[in-house]
Amino acid sequence: MKILHINAGLESGGGLTHIISLLRGQNDAELLTLAEGPVAAAAREAGIKVSVMQHQSRYSLSVLRDLRQFINQGQFDIVHTHGPRANLFVNLIRRRIQAKWVITVHSDPKLDFMQGGIVGRIFTHLNIASLKHAAQIDVVTKRFEQQLLTLGVKPQRMRVIYNGIDFHSEPMTPVAHDAFTLMIVARLHPVKDHKLLLNAFKAADIPAVLNIVGDGPEMDHIKQQIAALDLSDRVHLLGFKTQDEIRQLQATTDMTVLTSQSESFPLVLLESADAGIPVLTTDVGDMQVMVPSTDYGFVIPVGDQHALVNALQMAYKDYQAGILPTMGAAFRAYASEHFSIKQLQTSVWAGYQQLLQ
């Protein structure tokens, strides 16, 4: 069985981590990206066979001929796409390739081009249309499965497969630091709702530090909001960080925060579990499965600033009482048992075999 995974190549967050984790150590799978970027670089570093199909325009249709030839000449049994651009291109050639087509839906397709204007609405429509033609769709939460049902995707074509990561053999060793420290690792994009977090952080009025890791189109707006709320001395915009750099920051982090309006099954929270750090998150992405108990962290309604303020204040009290490390250790034990990379790979490969049979 030969498998080709295809991605646009410009992912830098959870999508990148998912793809690399899925392919690492799998000799019968390789990766094709449609641009040189973070995904190809990470794949090479992980020892994954990777090819890059670079074209002058991101949406140049001249790529279709090259993509079709690459798939057919490579005699791949499965083509597995990740992301709207890869979905769209394979959909356009699906009748001219021999391979079975699988898609992983990492995010809400209605929000992938959020605030993209007319062009965003067009690509949203095209991506949703593509989802209806794949032989199999792996969705990373039951919520996404229900959303796709409402969009017309046939239920027999979908499987729920939760994300997993490669947990370190030992928990991270914390480094002493002066203040209660929170960290959010997320694209600076409206769907991540940094605005809500900053307003709540101000209203909570606790002696804490907030590190914001990530880059994106909301950078200027977030800078302006930090200044307007007079938080420049306690909120630090750190920009994009590598996984190793994030791991270093986790050593001085007491709680991971995620305030998204929509998520899949957030790898950033599994990475927090790996580090032994409890979480404070909005109720997105089957969170009742990832964080089923207050023993592991706080789960609040999406967009609820009052609930977020209360949770921040409660987390600070737990920090003062020395409870957070115990929560983090419990979260790590639970997540490592249920969401390992081995479980993810086994489930995905079983789906390939079933599809080919």
How is this structure best summarized?
This protein has 357 residues and is an alpha/beta fold. Helix content is 43%, strand content 17%.
Sum up the structure in keywords.
single chain, 357 residues, alpha/beta, Rossmann fold, seven-stranded parallel β-sheet, six-stranded parallel β-sheet, 43% helix, globular
Outline: globular
Low-confidence stretches: none
Query: What average pLDDT do the residues reach?
Result: 93
Structural class: alpha/beta
The CATH topology of the largest domain corresponds to: Rossmann fold
Largest sheet: 7 strands, parallel
The helix/strand order is EHEHEHEHEHEHEEHEHEHEHEHEHHH
Indicate how many domains the architecture comprises. 2
Total of DSSP H or I helical runs spanning 4+ residues: 14
Largest beta sheet: what is the strand line-up?
3-2-1-4-5-6-7
CATH superfamily of the largest domain: Glycogen Phosphorylase B
For the terminal residues, how far apart are their CA atoms?
Answer: 12 Å
Helix fraction by DSSP (H/I, runs of at least 4) = 40-55%
- Can you count the beta strands? 13
CATH level-1 class of the largest domain: Alpha Beta
Q: What quaternary form is this? A: single chain
In percent, how much strand structure appears in the residues?
15-25%
C-alpha-based Rg, rounded: 21 Å
CATH structural architecture of the largest domain: 3-Layer(aba) Sandwich
Pfam family, one: Glycos_transf_1
Domain Glycosyl transferase family: 177-319
Keywords: Transferase
Protein name: Glycosyltransferase group 1 protein
